[in-house]
Amino acid sequence: MTPSNPLANHYQRALRADEVLAQIDAHYPAGPTLHQLAPLDQLHIGGVAASKRLLARLNPDTHSKVLDIGAGLGGLMRQGASLGFKMTGLDITHGFSALNKALSLRVNQADSLPLTWVTGNASALPFADSSFDAVLFQHSLLNMPDATKVIAESRRVLRPDGQLVMHEVVSGPNVAQLRYPVPWAASSEHSHLMTIAELTRLLETGGFRLEHTEDWSKLALEWRQRQRQKEQAPRQAVLSPQWVFGERFITMGKNLVDNLAEGAIKVVEIQASC
Questions:
Q1: What is the DSSP pairing of strand 265-273 with strand 209-215?
Q2: Per-residue model confidence (pLDDT) at position 3
Q3: For residue 1, is pLDDT > 50?
Q4: What are 29-49's pLDDT values in tens digits?
């Protein structure tokens, strides 16, 4: 996808990749730790804790080859690689994939992280059948207009008994009141939220067996409220989502809190097998 595409433009319009790398090199000359990168690369609700929780549903001994669909800046990928998973990250936004790779190469002990980066479309995955033991979605399906095709492609590239694990935003009972902008969309044009019932039905009709479903919207709201307080502190952090979204993130962060508090969105965790 080129920067002229509206979705890619949403993510890339304020991205200061060169400045981000210069900031990291200046503050972390020996290379940043995963914890130090987290304010930048763990852009989803829940941060590092949510990524660890997602990965804990998989065993690297039995599900070592993992595809992260919508990998963004690679926070989940690097977290998984540090736990022993062989991570492949796919993102439709080339600017994100390029910065993801550059960040990964700067991390402490980068040579030990088994990572692969691919720019591509989740509706037409550039991988052979049965290529992966597990597929992950973390706040990424919500940007995909043809979720049926994406789930079918995910099923295709998974081996028999493969695992699909999701940490996704879904529509809440008051979705009509959803406030924009949010990190994944400036308007409803690129926000493709489903209800939890619609999402689980899509997985089942797509050939998956549901194993775990959990609504952790309460925890998500509490986490976002804490982050909001940090973002309003007078001392500027070394890294933050504003390096990606610019000043827009001030409004995005507030809207996330309001949308969770008012039931416009929910955050769910799902695991299914094929």
A1: antiparallel
A2: 42
A3: no
A4: 999 999 999 999 999 999 999
Q: What is the 3-state secondary structure (H, E, C) of the chain?
A: CCCCCHHHHHHHCCCCHHHHHHHHHHHCCCCCCHHHHHHHHCCCCCHHHHHHHHHCCCCCCCCCEEEEECCCCCHHHHHHHHCCCEEEEEECCHHHHHHHHHHHHHCCCHHHCCEEEEECCHHHCCCCCCCEEEEEEECCHHHCCCHHHHHHHHHHHEEEEEEEEEEEEEECCCHHHCCCCECCECCHHHCCCCCHHHHHHHHHHCCCEEEEEEECHHHHHHHHHHHHHHHCCCCCCCCCCHHHHCCHHHHHHHHHHHHHHCCCEEEEEEEEEC
Distance (Å, rounded) from C-alpha 119 to C-alpha 126? 9
Sheet holding 132-138, edge to edge: 115-119, 86-91, 65-69, 132-138, 158-171, 265-273, 209-215
Q: Rounded CA gap, 193 and 168, in Å?
A: 9
**pLDDT tens-place string over residues 130-177:** 999 999 999 999 999 999 999 999 999 999 999 999 999 999 999 999
Domains and CATH numbers, the chain: 6-273 (3.40.50.150)
Q: Is the peptide bond before 183 cis (omega within 30 degrees of 0)?
A: no
Total-model pTM: 0.95
CA-CA-CA-CA dihedral for 48, 52, 55, 56, to nearest 10: -170
